[in-house]
């Protein structure tokens, strides 16, 4: 029975006017080739809309538009205060369109509407607002050269930024690029994932409505090997802010080398380790967090702690607690406001995740929760929250990023062993240590090779701190004031004083 106090998301979805065309120089346009591709809904396997299949010609139009607006200075030459006001209006408009943006995100990539509403829209708007508020508070430098010179070290916008983002948090990942890139005066060409183009296109419309000059922010949807490659290879793009898989991150480095040596900032995959020591005094909270942070967003989170390392003396009891928590994440209709676990993004991802589950079984890990597709009758792509116990760190499910609701539990005896297992990975995005022993918490945190180490929590987060990885998890840092470094060049102006 429908709850009269909750919005009827189906009725709202029906009323939406979906538009999959590119947005270039302030106008919605079809692909130069006239081609489209079918965007299938993860909720039911039905075609949601046809999206412009952007290619090299479309990317070129968008880059020309971005370059011209940059060269004319219509955005970069506005005062920081003026840019701030426009971006604040942009954030306001995002919040005013909160329901619509959340609905687009859910329809596009399958996350529960309550998560899209509760996290994605608010966090994306907050990110834009935070960079807007920061930009008129950062100062340039005067170098300590002595009395014979005045040497100014100033930050200048780079020019045209190509942003290429994934489908797991489409709006938030776009905002992490747009906030610092636009606040510093750059023009942007955004290539959303072919699996989730809708919110990116709507964001560009809202930015223009907020007063961003046309041509400063362009969006070209399309496939990675077509639109994405054209953007990364373009000779007039100054930097690529990439978030996606390590496999494609590798290609990004090649594209930079093969074209104009543009800067490549890679934010890539992860296989984060969550270390639970027997001395931690609140195992219920640790278990709740271990389950919540792997099963949130259907496990499609780069920083999901997909390897749970538990000290052997508490392992049986702890795994039972995590398995009990997993029951709270049974997949259900993403458009039902009560649902906490939605659909995987598409059939390919469903097959990938089921393939990993099969490999876990084949390699001898014990499946203690889930392990199967569910709700197949819906036509959508749903997998039960899955836990493997008895995993060895050399198994495929411990080494490769699954990007689905699958947790691998590895037991350890000593602190040294736990650190060694955690660091024995190609990835280094995040890690966590749970211990009530302050010395141990610090000692272990220092030795874990990861961009972020959580202590006695996993989910706490804020725009004020950098986000990014080491090793094959990437080289860039989104969020915080450090993100300004990615989209600005330092210029020295040396003035001789006679
Ligand atoms: P992906 O690498 O397949 O695609 C990411 C983007 O790159 C998409 O827009 C895609 O169209 C484009 N692309 C694909 N092939 C391309 C090519 N040959 N040339 C240019 N562009 C190309 O990744 P995905 O499946 O969309 O996203 C999941 C991955 O993203 C996971 O590995 C996840 O860990 C990672 N991720 C990382 C972070 C982070 O901040 N580190 C955040 C979110 C997701």
Number of helices: 16
Largest sheet: 7 strands, mixed
Shape: globular
What's the end-to-end separation, in Å?
A: 83 Å
Can you walk through the features of this model?
There is one protein chain. This protein has 498 residues and is of the alpha/beta class. 39% of the residues lie in helices and 20% in strands. The strands form seven sheets. It has a seven-stranded mixed beta sheet, sandwiched between helices. It has a five-stranded parallel beta sheet with strand order 9-8-7-10-11, sandwiched between helices. The protein has a three-stranded antiparallel beta sheet with strand order 5-6-23. Helix 3 (80-96) runs antiparallel to helix 5 and helix 4 (98-109) crosses helix 5. It is globular and about 75 Å long. The model has no long low-confidence stretch (mean pLDDT 97).
Question: Tags for this entry?
Answer:
alpha/beta; 7-stranded mixed beta sheet; single chain; 16 helices; 5-stranded parallel beta sheet
Ordered list of secondary-structure elements with their pairings:
Layout: H1 9-15, E1 22-24, E2 27-29, E3 36-40, E4 47-52, H2 56-72, H3 80-96, H4 98-109, H5 113-134, E5 141-142, E6 149-157, E7 160-164, H6 170-183, E8 187-191, H7 198-209, E9 217-219, H8 224-233, E10 239-243, H9 246-258, E11 263-267, E12 273-276, H10 283-295, E13 307-311, H11 312-326, H12 347-362, E14 366-369, E15 373-374, E16 382-383, E17 386-389, H13 396-399, E18 406-412, H14 415-423, E19 427-428, E20 430-434, H15 438-447, E21 452-455, E22 470-471, H16 483-486, E23 488-496
Parallel strand pairs: 7-8, 7-10, 8-9, 10-11, 12-13, 12-20, 13-18, 17-18, 20-21
Antiparallel strand pairs: 1-2, 3-4, 5-6, 6-23, 14-17, 15-16, 19-22
Nicotinamide-adenine-dinucleotide (NAD) binds at residues 164-168, 173, 191, 193-194, 224-225, 228-229, 232, 243-245, 248, 251, 267-270, 302, 401, 403, 429, 467, 469, 474.
């Amino acid at each position: 029975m429908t709850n009269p106090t909750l919005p009827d998301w189906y009725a709202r979805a029906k009323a939406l006017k979906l538009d999959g065309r590119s947005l270039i120089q302030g106008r919605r346009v079809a692909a130069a080739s006239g081609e489209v591709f079918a965007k299938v809904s993860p909720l039911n396997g039905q075609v949601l809309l046809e999206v412009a299949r952007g290619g090299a010609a479309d990317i070129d139009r968008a880059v020309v538009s971005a370059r011209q607006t940059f060269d004319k200075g219509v955005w970069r030459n506005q005062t920081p205060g003026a840019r701030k006001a426009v971006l604040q209006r942009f954030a306001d408009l995002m919040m005013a369109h909160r329901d619509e943006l959340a609905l687009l995100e859910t329809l596009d990539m399958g996350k529960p509407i309550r998560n899209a509403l509760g996290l994605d829209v608010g966090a994306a708007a907050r990110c834009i607002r935070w960079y807007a508020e920061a930009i008129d508070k950062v100062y340039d430098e005067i170098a300590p050269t002595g009395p014979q010179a005045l040497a100014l070290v100033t930050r200048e916008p780079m020019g045209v930024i190509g942003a290429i983002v994934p489908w797991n948090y489409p709006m938030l990942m776009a905002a992490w690029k747009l906030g610092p890139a636009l606040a510093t005066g750059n023009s942007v060409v955004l290539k959303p994932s072919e699996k989730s183009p809708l919110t990116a296109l709507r964001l560009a419309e809202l930015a223009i409505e907020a007063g961003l000059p046309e041509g400063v922010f362009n969006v070209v949807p399309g496939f990675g090997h077509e639109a994405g490659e054209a953007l990364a290879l373009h000779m007039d793009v100054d930097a690529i802010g990439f978030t996606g898989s390590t496999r494609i991150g590798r290609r990004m480095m090649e594209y930079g080398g093969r074209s104009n040596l543009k800067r490549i900032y890679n934010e890539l995959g992860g296989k984060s380790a969550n270390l639970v020591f027997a001395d931690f005094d609140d195992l219920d909270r640790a278990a709740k967090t271990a389950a919540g942070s792997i099963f949130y967003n259907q496990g499609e989170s780069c920083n999901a702690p997909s390897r749970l390392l538990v000290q052997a003396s508490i392992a049986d009891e702890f795994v039972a607690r995590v398995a009990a928590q997993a029951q709270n994440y049974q997949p259900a209709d993403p458009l039902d406001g009560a649902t906490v676990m939605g659909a995987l993004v598409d059939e390919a991802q469903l097959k990938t995740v089921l393939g990993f589950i099969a490999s876990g079984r084949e390699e001898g890990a014990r499946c203690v929760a889930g392990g199967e597709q569910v709700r197949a009758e819906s036509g959508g792509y749903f997998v039960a929250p899955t836990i493997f116990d008895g995993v060895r760190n050399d198994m495929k499910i411990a080494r490769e990023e699954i990007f689905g609701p699958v947790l691998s539990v590895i037991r350890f005896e000593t602190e040294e062993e736990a650190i060694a297992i955690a660091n024995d990975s190609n990835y280094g995005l995040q890690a966590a240590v749970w211990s009530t022993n302050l010395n141990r918490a610090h000692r272990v945190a220092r030795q874990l090779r990861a961009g972020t180490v959580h202590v006695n929590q996993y989910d706490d987060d804020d725009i004020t701190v950098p986000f990014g990885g080491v090793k094959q998890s990437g080289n860039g840092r989104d969020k915080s004031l450090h993100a300004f470094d990615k989209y600005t060049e330092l210029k020295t102006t040396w003035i001789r004083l006679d």
